[in-house]
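Batch 3, record 17
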Amino acid sequence: MSIDTETARRVAKLARIEVAEEALPALAGEFNAILGFIEQLNEVDVDGVEPMTSVTPQRLKRRADVVTDGSQQAAVLKNAPDAREGFFAVPKVVE
Amino acid sequence: MSELRKLTIAAARDAMRKGDTTSTEITQACLTAIDGADALGAFVHKTPEIALAQAQAADARIKSGDAPAMCGIPLGIKDLFCTKGVPSQAASGILEGFKPEYESTVTSQLFDAGAVMLGKLNMDEFAMGSSNETSVYGNAINPWKVDDRDLTPGGSSGGSASAVAADLCLAATGTDTGGSIRQPAAFTGITGMKPTYGRVSRWGIVAFASSLDQAGPMTKDVRDAAIMLQAMCGHDPKDSTSADLAVPDFEAALTGDIKGKTIGIPREYRLDGMPAEIAKLWDDGTAMLKDAGAKIVDISLPHTKYALPAYYVIAPAEASSNLARYDGVRFGHRAKLAAGDGITEMYEKTRAEGFGPEVQRRVMVGTYVLSAGFYDAYYNRARKVRTLIKKDFDDAFAAGVGAILTPATPSAAFGLGEMANADPIKMYLNDVFTVTVNLAGLPGIAVPTGRDAQGLPLGLQLIGRPWEEAELLNVAYCLENAAGFIAKPAKWW
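Prediction for the assembled complex:
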């Protein structure tokens, strides 16, 4: 699998990272080096092997479905680059 | 005064309890040393006011007779840990100005035990790197030097390693996703331990790859690792993967007696082209454990060579998901927008400005391997290989192996900038001996046992059975005693 400039552009878009047009070929080259390294995994026989979901066999703990925290609007908004009237503010989303 | 900062945790604890010194005195000695060590780039946010207030409180507590082992011990905290009201940036531009409104579980536990925070420590951005060169703060530098070059302290916990090796603090917190505690420990001649996955809560630690991340102690010796780990671990309801298991007394396990213990030597770790001094270090360490009464057996971990490629699918995949939260909305940096820019431009510009090149690369690789059409070919295959890697270890342990001895790193510390033009894979190879342990969720510890021809420290790694940190620490203690590594870097900074 070889990654071309077009694929690099699409991946950057999916990752929501702006990449300048002239930087795309070099980026595609780096992806190819890393994916070439990853290709080794194709040598392994994984037939019938379960993909790992949890490294330590354990059942996730459950707790009662009740409110345990809240009423911390000021703390939640404290680090926001733009907070107004108790909300996070972002550029216009809907026309 | 300057000797106080060179104390181990155990020695400081005993001296404070006897009334021979105080936390305030030790803390002051560390703060002075930190101010004189800016050239190392280890401490990136200094917190002297917090430190002195905590030290004073610790002194009162020690006087009252109620003093846990960590009480009054001045520590450095890796920048990846959220510390309330103190910058916690994961060494990234995207978290510029972020001051958490909460405290990570690990630092809470340490501070509740009376430990003192001297400041935040340098690291690779989002813990992605093996040389501390991806930090927004600039490089951390190894206190060890052999010529006029500045050497890397390793990464990602490079600031932690540099600070402990240079005696700027008594110990430091680190985190380890693929080797980020053990590799820098080996590069700087200190002890670094990654516990079993689930032993230490991840709550409040900036996430990189959640199925691999684990915090641990970076200390001057094995006893200190035992003492500090004790204070860091335990069940935390705020981390769903935190294990609800009793925590043994790790320090009490350090008997130095390993007679009859079976130590496995994995043949796949003897890589082609392994430098002679690494091979000798490993052979010497094996002989030390044998002399101490351990039974040495050759073992096979057949999927070892696939660990790094599997890691470089799984870790970026998890990172691309975890780092999606850095969107310029809730915290950290937001790019200045041009007229007409909408929310998508805000995301794209913010993330392009805020993330450094290595982080961008990994997020995009992760995005690619998780994207439609490649998920099975890359991500699921890597997770299956991970199952096989863990099974290799399970089989060895089932055959009676109690611990496994390997080199910690393929070389001693290299010069900063020396890998700048190498392809990323070359840097990734630093973690070739450590990454298997994260994939299998096992405890691992790096112990300094020798020096290379130039005089730089080299370390060996011991890998233990899951949840058997106590037994692992005891083997490490035995190795430490036999190796007798006491060299310290000469001060140049």
